[in-house]
Amino acid sequence: MVTKIKIDPITRIEGHLAIEAVVDDGLVKEATSAGTLFRGFEIILRDRDPRDANRLTQRICGVCPTAHATASALCLDDAFGLTNKIPDNAKLIRNLIFGSNFLQSHILHFYHLAALDYVDAVGVLGDLAPFVPRYEGDYRVTGQKNAELVNHYVRALDIRRKCQEMLAIFGGKMPHNVGIVPGGITEKLTEDKVTNFLWRLNEIRDFIDNVYIPDVIAVAKAYSDYFEIGRGCQRMLAYGGFDLPPRLLGEDKSGGQLFKSGVVSPDLQPEEFASENITEDVKHSWYTDSSSGKNPAQGETKPDLKKKQAYSFIKSPRYEGKVCELGPLARMVNNYIQGDAKVKKLVDSVLGEFNTGVNTLFSVLGRHAARALESKLVADAMVDWLTSLKPVEPTIVDSQIPEQGEGAGLTEAPRGAVGHWITVKDKKIDRYQVITPTAWNASPKDDKDQPGAVEQALIGTKVRDKDNPFELVRIVRAFDPCLACSVHLLDAGGSELGVFRVV
Amino acid sequence: MDTKKYPVIWLQGAGCTGCSISVLNAVSPRIQNLLLDEVVPGHQLNLMFHATIMAGQGEPVIEVLRDTEKNCKGGYILIVEGAIPTAENGAYCSIGEKAGRHETIQQSVEELGRSALLTVALGTCAAYGGIPAGKPNPTLCKGVKALFNEKGIETPVVNIPGCPPHPDWFVGTISVILFSGAEALDLDELARPKLFYGQLIHENCPRRADFDKGKFAEKLGDPGCLYKVGCKGHYTYADCPIRQWNNGVSWCVKAGSPCQGCVEPEFPDGTSPIYEKITFEDLLWSQK
Fold it and tell me: What is the DSSP string of A435-468?
């Protein structure tokens, strides 16, 4: 029997998302993912002072605003001719600000966005809103362990708050930090801040090592079938992120970044990443077909809201025409395949725990594990960044807005690779474009009718109970979608937007 | 003693979830106290709907909205985060679907707003439109009060602006409501609690002495008053310099960055360019 399961809204994600699955004989045959909010950020950015993009684009997403602050600063550094002048201190402090946000975002994701799909909060707290209504049935962790996980849900609220407080030491405030600017950072670097930061970081590292990672493993043991569920496209893309100054590169001078850039194919072969291979298809999005298949640096997007086959505000970014997954899993796989010793050790230790191989990483649990291990990688690296700071050296260089210019800023957000592109004309923003990780992951079908990464992960899934389709929401949430991020990205060029239904 | 429970519906429109994340940063009481405990003795919130943290999904959670409206008429608090896109009958933001019908944020705020005890417009987007309403306002975003005025909805609105608002401003406003009743809120002409928005940033700024002595930062990273690098503290009403942010760790000016005027109704158009010195005209509108 063919049934349609529609989940609208998908809650416990950032933003507005709807999922529809066509289920035939218990198996998902087709799946669509659609964003349901449009704000038009790029339209709002036009004609403003370029520096303001660095503040305003953070407001694309309040969960990981520093991803946009960082991408935007790199983009403006490039347009202002500052890329090679950024002081080492500034690179490191930007990383510390951004790293704090990574830890906040990942801990929030596992405990407060994803965990309620696995942990029986009602069993501990009673029938209490906002923990009811919920899907009923498949809660497998019981007794003492379940009570402990609920307790950690509450404790993680404090830890994620403390990540924000740590961030504010150099970032001024959170959400929406003010410290990261083109040219460097605005806060003064003093020894007392370094020590203050270090001891806050130590408490968070302790939580990651002794609570977060063990909890992910405990959940994985109870739900081990989810190593087989939600496989997806298996093509892993990373732009690379967390620029490191030479003094931190050690013997391995090959890459100047904590997260390596690259593409790993489904047969685990590494390829080099080149941004000119990115194109955006719009066959199933509400834009005119003539704008399809262009690189974001050239793409002009015109809405066409009467398109019959369209079902999403999100376009379909593709790499060499292929569907890619972005995010912690993509980063860990890229670093692993490129031979990063630290990542290899971390990943192998978890795979060893389950007596399984790299292929099982392409799954719901693989995504949660990658996120937890990546938290450790970033948190441990932050100690090195912090202790490499030199308070006597500068933290910012002076900058001038050029009459004309172009810039690109590519980095890694908690949810995956993010890119900002700017064209400056008469010292103002002529064009600003953002492509977010969720635009890749939650994209609709492309011109060749290849489903997007989340859609592919859903297709083929066995749904045991269509009234409580745990499998579907667990798959979607494992990607940590951020819809405020992905649905702002069109450039309407001032055209009239017709009357339409948002799916 | 019976606990009085206030059902709370928290809706998100054209926003970034940053206001919710900021409220998660509350310190005393902490977010877990707000969710699970009596915030003041005998009074407790009951968060029925919040899309970022609630366990449920899909149609059943949209039913929660309807049930609360029907069963708790005049007794629930509606919190709105994000602006309300009003172009194309609200089609730019749908918060869910029921029986094949899309629930736009505009419909939901209107319907739930009519029967609420009180509506809290949390953050500058919900209060005045904010960044989504920035020029050229592509989706015709509005703040809650503007929408209510247009639709003749008389439910009182409290604005707690800020991009994001400080968690204490939210928790403090809730405290007044629970402790003394909504009528005890002392609001300014922009419907903000005077308790938090009663003084200029400039009045309490630790760099005020630099301003008085004429010691100005010429570029970002310099010591001195940030007036020449764009500080909007001269016309921005908020207690950031005294309260500070993130458990008292820092705030914009302390971190060497100019106040952006993010609590003001003119944010972002009237308060930008962010890094350019304010003009005499800016000060004139702020005196209005």
Answer: E-HHHHHT----TT----HHHHHHTT-B-S-TTS
pLDDT, residue B32, reads: 95
Query: How close, in Å, is residue B211 to chain A by CA atoms?
Result: 19
- Distance from C-alpha of A142 to C-alpha of A152, rounded to nearest angstrom: 15
Judged by DSSP in three states, A7 sits in strand
- Chain B contact set for A56 (CB, 8 A): 131, 134, 268
Distance between CA A54 and CA A180 in Å, rounded? Answer: 8
Judged by average pLDDT, the poorest of A120-129, A494-503, B202-211, B272-281 is A494-503
SS (H, E, C) A353-407: HCCCCHHHHCCHHHHHHHHHHHHHHHHHHHHHHHHCCCCCCCCECCCCCCCEEEE
| Secondary element (H or E) of residue B170 | helix B167-180
CB contact at 8 A, A399 and A182: yes
Are the CB atoms for A371 and A109 separated by under 8 Å? Answer: yes
3-class DSSP state for residue B43? strand
- Among the partner-chain residues A59, A165, A178, the one whose CB lies closest to the CB of B249 is A165
Q: What is the C-alpha to C-alpha distance for residues A116 and A99, in angstroms, rounded to an integer?
A: 26
Does the distance separating the beta carbons of B21 and A63 come in below 8 Å? Answer: yes
* Residue A112: closest CA among A147, A144, A159: A159
pLDDT by residue (tens digit) across A446-455?
999 999 999 9
Q: What is the pTM of this model?
A: 0.95
CA–CA distance, B34 with B132 (Å, rounded to integer): 29
For residue A375, name the pLDDT band (cuts at 50, 70, 90).
very high
Residues A206-224 as b/e (b if ≥16 CB within 10 A, e otherwise) read ebbeebbbebbbbbbebbe
Q: What percent of chain B has pLDDT over 90?
A: 89
| Catalytic one of B72, B93, B125, B141 | B125
pLDDT digits (tens, 9 = 90+) for A393-427: 999 999 999 999 999 999 999 999 999 999 999 99
Average pLDDT over chain A, rounded to an integer: 91
Chain B residues inside the 8 Å CB shell of A496: none
The residue among A8, A131, A167, A466 with the most chain B CBs within 10 A of its CB, best to mutate, is: A8
- Helix ranges (H only) for B201-244 are 201-204, 208-213, 240-243
Q: Residue A489: what pLDDT?
A: 31
- In the annotation, is B93 catalytic? no
Q: Quote the distance between the C-alpha of residue B233 and its chain's center.
A: 18
Does A171 sit within 8 Å of B255, measured CB to CB? Answer: yes
Provide φ and ψ at A236, rounded to 5°: -110, 120
Cβ neighbour number for residue B277 with a 10 Å cutoff: 14
DSSP A262: E
Q: Give first-to-last CA distance, chain A, whole Å.
A: 24
CA distance B9 to chain A (A): 10
Mutate to test the interface with A, among B36, B65, B68, B94 (most CBs of A within 10 A): B94
**What are the two backbone dihedrals, phi and then psi, of residue A209, each rounded to the nearest 5 degrees?**
-70, -40
Q: What residues contact B111, with CB distance under 8 A and at least 6 apart?
A: B69
Candidates A9, A43, A170; nearest CB to B95: A9
Write down the pLDDT at residue B193: 98
Which of B11, B17, B243, B260 is the mutation pick for testing A, counting most A CBs within 10 A? B17
Considering only the beta carbons, identify the residue of A38, A187, A501 that sits closest to B102: A501
